[in-house]
Structure formats: structure tokens, C-alpha cells
Amino acid sequence: MAPYVSKSPRAAYLNYRDLDIGTNNNKGNTSYAQASIWGVKYFKNNFNRLVQVKASVDPMNFFRNEQSIPPISVPWWKKRGN
């Protein structure tokens, strides 16, 4: 396993937020471009899909934290379910 272990291993925990990767700003108005810098590292290929889900489920960004998916504006016709 030696080739696969990092030089400075750390503990890993369920639901642990690795803030070293990056975070949103404190005001909660992080842009997609800013969040994608760390979001792609953290969520891999799921980041863009999660942004789309966030836009339809939580457009007002009620559920936010240091590493939450940023809200993007959704066209009005998608908000109505058409």
C-alpha cells in the first residue's frame, strides 16, 4: 500500500468537510466559477449535475455551508415545472 498512501496522511471521517480543498465565501454569495475551483476536486464529475439539482431544489440557498453547491439562476419556465 505504500505507493498509494500520501506523505502526510490524515484521518477521514464520514461527512467530514476537507476545507483545505477550498471553501465558499462567508457571505453565501459564491459564484459558480469560484465554487467550481474546489467543487470539481471534491465532487468530481458530479459537480455540474449537483449544481443543476441545487438550482431546482434550493434556489434561495437556504441549505448552505462552507462547501455547499452554489445556487445558480434557473429559467422561470423550469421553476414552474414545464
TrEMBL record:
It comes from the Eukaryota. One of its GO terms (molecular function) is flavin adenine dinucleotide binding. Keywords: FAD, Flavoprotein. It holds the Pfam family BBE. Residues 12-70 form the Berberine/berberine-like domain. This is Cannabidiolic acid synthase. It comes from Vitis vinifera (Grape). The gene is CBDAS_1.
